[in-house]
């Protein structure tokens, strides 16, 4: 009998191979899709971490605001004020720059107007009542300076007249309890004093003209202009003032000009010498 030989035909494999190739192709496509989806998912996870941190910070700030300043310790209060100070520093620099420009313009304008007007007219302009000002509005620093200068100027004029020679009746302005009161100087004629000393029968000497009075006021104004000037506004000292801690600066500043209401604790540096904070000196100025 003839032995049975194994079959060498590949019948059936032709139908299986195309299905396997298609399955492998689909698996590779699925792997590519998973890799493409993994990148945005990872980015979303990173954003979620940042979002959760931001939400925790918001909740912390909300809890602090709910508790109020009374429930905060000293370090937290100092930290909050440091943040507020950093935010306001830029506004202060702009305010300083604006005040300096306005002061320069006002000074030049006053110099130009003062050359064309009489001292009496300028004095009347200073003593003019300000009816348009509201009751709640406080006087500005410039008005306080003008008031002090006019007060000292009038008092110095009366002193000079009393020392040099008798003069015709004059009226001096003095500030008493925030209001002006006119005090008349007792009348002393030059002729009467001469008659008492040298005897009667002498004719009275004529009074001095008003030009002499204006010359005295001009000399007094020149003496007042020699007073030292301070601060960013370059005015005389008045009110509360603070000294810069920088030894090279050694400049005094008015409280309103540097946005201060009371003396700060610790060291204080002026806008020209301070660093990131008002109690820290600029590193460029340190040796």
TrEMBL record:
Q: Name one GO molecular function term.
A: zinc ion binding
Q: Tell me, what's a Pfam family for it? A: PHD
Show the ranges annotated as biased composition (Polar residues).
114-127
TM spans, by residue?
none
Compositional bias (Basic and acidic residues) at which positions? 143-152
Name where it mostly resides: nucleus
Region listing for Disordered, in residue ranges = 114-210
Give the InterPro entries listed for this entry: ING_fam, Zinc_finger_PHD-type_CS, Znf_FYVE_PHD, Znf_PHD, Znf_PHD-finger, Znf_RING/FYVE/PHD
Xref: Gene3D superfamilies: Zinc/RING finger domain, C3HC4 (zinc finger)
Is the keyword Phosphoprotein in the record?
Answer: no
Q: Do you know which SMART domains this protein is assigned to?
A: PHD
Q: Which UniProt keywords apply?
A: Metal-binding, Nucleus, Zinc, Zinc-finger
Spell out the Basic residues composition-biased ranges. Answer: 194-210
Q: Which residues form the PHD-type domain?
A: 228-276
Q: Name one GO cellular component term.
A: nucleus
PANTHER family named in the record: INHIBITOR OF GROWTH PROTEIN (PTHR10333)
Protein name as annotated: PHD-type domain-containing protein
Organism of derivation = Onchocerca volvulus
Native organism taxonomy:
Eukaryota, Metazoa, Ecdysozoa, Nematoda, Chromadorea
């Amino acid at each position: 009998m003839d032995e049975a030989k194994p079959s060498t035909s590949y019948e059936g494999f032709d139908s299986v191979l195309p299905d396997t190739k298609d399955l492998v192709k689909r698996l590779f496509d699925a792997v590519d899709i998973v890799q493409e989806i993994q990148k945005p998912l990872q980015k979303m996870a990173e954003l979620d971490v940042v979002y959760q941190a931001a939400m925790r910070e918001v909740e912390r700030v909300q809890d602090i605001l709910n508790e109020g300043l009374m429930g905060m310790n000293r370090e937290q209060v100092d930290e909050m004020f440091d943040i507020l100070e950093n935010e306001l520093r830029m506004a202060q620099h702009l305010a300083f720059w604006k005040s300096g420009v306005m002061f320069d313009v006002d000074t030049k304008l006053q110099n130009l107007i003062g050359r064309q007007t009489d001292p009496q007219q300028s004095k009347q302009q200073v003593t003019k009542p300000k009816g348009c000002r509201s009751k709640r509005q406080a006087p500005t620093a410039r008005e306080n300076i003008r008031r002090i200068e006019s007060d000292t100027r009038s008092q110095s004029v009366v002193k000079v007249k009393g020392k040099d020679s008798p003069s015709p009746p004059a009226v001096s302005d003095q500030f008493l309890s925030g209001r002006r009161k006119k005090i008349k100087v007792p009348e002393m004629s030059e002729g009467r004093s001469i008659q008492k000393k040298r005897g009667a029968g002498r004719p009275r000497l004529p009074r001095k003209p008003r030009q002499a009075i204006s010359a005295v006021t001009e000399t007094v104004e020149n003496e007042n202009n020699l007073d030292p000037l301070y601060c960013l506004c370059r005015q005389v000292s008045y009110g509360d003032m603070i000294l810069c801690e920088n030894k090279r600066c050694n400049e005094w500043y008015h409280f309103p000009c540097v946005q201060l209401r009371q003396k700060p604790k610790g060291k204080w540096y002026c806008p020209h010498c301070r660093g990131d904070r008002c109690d820290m000196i600029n590193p460029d100025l340190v040796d």
